[in-house]
């Protein structure tokens, strides 16, 4: 069945920056030069990517004006793909582990809120199979990928669509953007990952200039073991996402509970309808303040919207306390005067 409705505009936006600033060709600084935009459908929802692109501007450099894209981009999606790698990984698991048919996989994805047409599922299955068939012994392909490059910068990422499922490990070259190797593994220890890196380093035929990853301990150990002395850079985006995940979850939970506590705003607003006396005006102002606090969504991981909501609701409550105190004081002074 084809998709009937137009795809909704993604509500989430992510800005990705290349971690590396020095040109792999000449070592000089690469300026941020322009921005590419990309819409992706991922398991947590649709996302709008704003990709900051660097470029070397030193005349004579072998990478003069060759774009350098954010390393994290290829951890999210393959080139020219509308769906995230996490969706592709899940499609692969549903097919090869759970032996789901295309309609079953389609239903499972729709059930998780992924807007996808059935024929796209077939397409993603092909992408998954192609990905795992990526072969390091295909020298023609490697030569094409590494044409004119003096080295590779490896990015290693593990995608696990669900806890307990196998992890789809993808090794890419950040300079060409090409996938060099992909494997589906049940575990992800340094012992499992080091051979993947060794295999890649042995096949590319050019030096490994560096590795970029989210800095998981197992990946760090694997890099130390397989590629001793090769600089390993943590991708801030991944690192932050990993580090912020538990906080983000706790914050989201807190926000839900806070919202539940201020559900009483609506009845108050209704009771005030048709009144335009000063008291009603003030009460309406407070209701508006509470409403605006509820809809003030921060952008994780840098802004904790639950904490912000708490601060704003506390400001409203403090203000109400002050009003109540003033009212009480006035009543007291009126009482003593009479
Ligand atoms: Zn350069």
Kindly list the characteristics that best describe this protein.
Nucleotidyltransferase, domain 5, 11 helices
Give a concise summary:
It is built from 11 helices and 9 strands. The chain is an alpha/beta fold and 338 residues long.
Description:
The longest helix has 33 residues, at 305-337. The protein folds into four domains: 7-76, no CATH class; 79-138; 153-159 and 166-239, Ribonuclease H-like superfamily/Ribonuclease H (Nucleotidyltransferase, domain 5, 2-Layer Sandwich); 245-337, no CATH class. The mean pLDDT is 86. The protein is elongated, with a radius of gyration of 27 Å. With 338 residues, the chain is an alpha/beta fold. Helix content is 47%, strand content 18%. The protein is built from eleven helices and nine strands. 28% of the residues are buried. It starts with 11 loop residues before the first strand and ends with a helix. Bound molecules: zinc ion.
Fraction of residues in H or I helices = 40-55%
Structural class: alpha/beta
Question: Compounds present?
Answer: zinc ion
The string of secondary-structure elements, in order, is EEEEHHHHHEEEHEHEHHHH
Give Rg in angstroms.
27 Å
Beta strand %: 15-25%
* Count of discrete structural domains: 4
Ranges where pLDDT stays below 50 over 5 or more residues in a row are none
Query: Major beta sheet, specifics?
Result: 5 strands, mixed
Q: Please state how the strands of the largest beta sheet are arranged side by side.
A: 7-6-5-8-9
Tally of alpha and pi helices: 11
What value does the average pLDDT take?
A: 86
N-to-C CA distance: 80 Å
Report the strand count.
Answer: 9
Overall geometry comes to elongated
């Amino acid at each position: 069945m084809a998709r009937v409705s137009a795809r909704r505009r993604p509500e989430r936006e992510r800005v990705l920056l290349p971690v590396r600033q020095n040109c792999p060709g000449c070592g000089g600084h690469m300026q941020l030069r322009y921005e590419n935009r990309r819409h992706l459908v991922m398991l947590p929802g649709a996302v709008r990517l704003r990709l900051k692109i660097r470029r070397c501007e030193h005349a004579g450099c072998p990478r003069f004006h060759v774009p350098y894209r954010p390393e994290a981009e290829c951890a999210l999606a393959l080139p020219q793909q509308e769906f995230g790698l996490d969706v592709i990984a899940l499609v692969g698991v549903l097919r090869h582990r759970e032996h789901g048919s295309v309609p079953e996989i389609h239903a499972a994805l729709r059930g998780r809120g992924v807007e996808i047409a059935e024929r796209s599922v077939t397409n993603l299955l092909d992408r998954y199979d192609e990905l795992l068939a990526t072969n390091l012994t295909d020298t023609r392909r490697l030569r094409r990928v590494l044409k004119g490059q003096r080295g590779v910068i490896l990015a290693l990422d593990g995608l696990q669509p669900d806890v307990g499922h196998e992890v789809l490990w993808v090794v890419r070259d950040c300079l060409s953007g090409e996938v060099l190797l992909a494997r589906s593994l049940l575990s992800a220890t340094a012992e499992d990952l080091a051979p993947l890196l060794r295999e890649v380093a042995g096949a590319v035929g050019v030096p490994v200039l560096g590795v970029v990853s989210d800095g998981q301990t197992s990946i760090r150990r694997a890099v130390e073991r397989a590629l001793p002395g090769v600089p390993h850079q943590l991708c801030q985006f991944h690192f932050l996402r990993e580090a912020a995940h538990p906080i983000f979850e706790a914050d989201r939970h807190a926000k839900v509970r806070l919202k539940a506590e201020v559900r009483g705003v609506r009845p108050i607003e209704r009771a005030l309808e048709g009144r335009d006396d000063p008291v009603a005006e003030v009460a309406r102002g407070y209701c508006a303040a509470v409403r605006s606090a509820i809809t003030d969504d921060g952008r994780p991981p840098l802004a904790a919207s639950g904490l912000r909501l708490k601060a704003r609701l506390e400001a409203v409550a403090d203000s109400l306390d002050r009003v109540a105190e003033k009212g009480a004081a006035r009543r007291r002074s009126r009482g003593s005067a009479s």
